[in-house]
User: Which sequence fits this backbone?
């Protein structure tokens, strides 16, 4: 994407005052043939390209546009000033490394995890936990210290039957971040655990103790556990049926349905896909 613009009195208002409402404008003051300017220009251009989604790279030729340079109070070259909503935000004067320029921009530009979290929030609001899960998983890997991401991920995990993982994640949330969402997730976990203690499940578990080799009881119990959001236990149980008899009843179909219902990026999905493929092929 080409995000470079040369500033002139004609486009000054558009870029500096209007465009800076939605993006950060990085204003580079330079002069042709001036060695320090020439040396840093490729670095500035390279970094600007990297952040092109959220950044406009504006260049001011100080020999041609002395008035504009004067308006910004530029004393020497190279100078870079970041502008947001028409106001100077930050900047530097003098030589810089690429790393220093990146660090400066990263302080002010939206982070990747912010975008992922924003997308996931909209999906969760719409009740689409399946699509939100991989986005939150990625955001959590990028920013493992962020409680807001962890909480939304834990919420998805409970909704998708990963009760154990959600509990583990909640255990890492500090007291200061134990807000209304945290309490709501705890409530959901409690309900999921109560569902796993239902009379039907308890009766089937008792029957299985009496007949530990019954593939029929195991299959029925696996289905009940899956309905009670105990996905991991359900998969382990139904796989034990397939290991004995690959073509028992509808066990194979139930197993594939359970695996397909898992969200992309869930470690259980790849683990059990590998297991069933090794049995099928």
Assistant:
């Amino acid at each position: 994407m080409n995000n470079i613009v040369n500033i002139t009195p004609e486009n000054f208002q558009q870029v500096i005052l209007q465009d800076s409402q939605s993006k950060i404008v990085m204003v580079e003051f330079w002069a042709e043939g001036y060695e320090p300017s020439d040396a840093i220009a490729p670095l500035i251009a390279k970094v600007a390209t990297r952040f092109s989604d959220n950044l406009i790279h504006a260049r001011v030729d100080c020999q041609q546009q002395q008035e504009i340079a004067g308006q910004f109070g530029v004393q020497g070259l190279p100078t870079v000033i970041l502008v947001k909503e028409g106001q100077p935000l930050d900047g530097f004067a003098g030589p810089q490394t690429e790393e220093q320029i990146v660090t400066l921009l990263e302080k002010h530009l939206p982070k990747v995890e912010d975008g992922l979290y924003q997308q996931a929030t909209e999906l969760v609001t719409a009740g689409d936990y399946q699509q939100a899960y991989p986005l939150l998983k990625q955001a959590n890997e990028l920013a493992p210290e962020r409680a807001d991401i962890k909480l939304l991920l834990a919420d998805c995990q409970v909704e998708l039957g990963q009760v154990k993982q959600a509990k583990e994640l909640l255990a890492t949330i500090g007291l200061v971040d134990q807000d209304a969402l945290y309490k709501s997730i705890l409530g959901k976990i409690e309900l999921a655990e109560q569902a796993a203690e239902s009379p039907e499940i308890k009766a089937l578990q008792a029957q299985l103790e009496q007949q530990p080799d019954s593939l029929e009881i195991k299959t029925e119990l696996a289905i009940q556990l899956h309905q009670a959001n105990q996905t991991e236990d359900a998969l382990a149980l139904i796989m034990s049926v397939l290991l004995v008899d690959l073509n028992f009843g509808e066990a194979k179909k139930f197993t594939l349905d359970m695996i397909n219902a898992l969200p992309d990026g869930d470690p259980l999905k790849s683990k059990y896909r590998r297991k069933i493929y090794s049995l099928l092929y």
In short: The longest strand covers residues 24-30. The chain has 14 helices and five strands.
